[in-house]
Design a protein that fits this description.
Elements: E1 23-24, H1 26-36, H2 40-47, E2 48-51, E3 54-57, H3 80-84, H4 89-93, H5 95-104, H6 114-127, H7 151-156
Antiparallel strand pairs: 1-3, 2-3
Helix pairs in contact: 1-2
This protein binds iron/sulfur cluster (2 copies).
Length: about 160
């Protein structure tokens, strides 16, 4: 048990608000389609938009994710970026990004140092199989040096990924 908890979700729903943030991989699309009993094309047509070569969930008229209803209506099948937040790559490698994320996410403990947030985040990502090698289908937020692409990265870490 860590001496300080770096993050504990308060279920405020702020991270489910806003346009364009929920990018889905092919794996996410398949999992969500299976959960809803919809084939790929029907799922994409009803709930996503295709922007910049990526499929992303649309929002409702309230600007919240189409699946937000005082909580996530598809929680068991939510996309990986939803599972990973706030342990996105940027927040793990950069203390300023972590501080900015804490302004929007009340679940981030501002008393916990960034190094501890990063350590607990890496552990969480590994435990939940949310580390991904870099690839065109992978949201950049999920790319991590805990799953390196090359032997050089395995030995030295990815450029810019602070190992502290
Ligand atoms: S913004 Fe943070 S505290 Fe609020 S629901 Fe999202 S993860 Fe939880
Ligand atoms: S899929 Fe669920 S967790 Fe993800 S943004 Fe939508 S409502 Fe929030």
């Amino acid at each position: 048990m860590p001496s300080v908890i770096a993050f504990a979700c308060q279920r405020c729903g702020h991270c489910c608000e806003g346009v364009g943030g929920i990018v889905m991989s092919a794996f996410d699309i398949k999992r969500l389609g299976d959960h809803l009993g919809l084939d790929r094309n029907t799922l994409l047509e009803r709930f996503t938009e295709h922007v910049g070569g990526r499929h992303r969930l649309v929002t409702g008229t309230d600007d919240y994710c189409i699946f937000y209803a005082a909580g996530c209506a598809v929680h068991p099948a939510r996309p990986d970026v939803c599972r990973a937040w706030p342990y996105f790559r940027g927040n793990i490698i950069d203390a300023d990004s972590h501080a900015m994320a804490a302004e929007d996410c009340p679940g981030i403990n501002r008393q916990a140092p960034h190094s501890e947030f990063a350590r607990q985040g890496r552990d969480y990502l590994v435990a939940n199989d949310l580390c991904r090698p870099r690839g065109e289908d992978v949201p950049e937020a999920l790319v991590s040096d805990t799953n390196p692409d090359t032997p050089e990265e395995a030995e030295h870490g990815r450029p810019g990924f602070d190992a502290s």
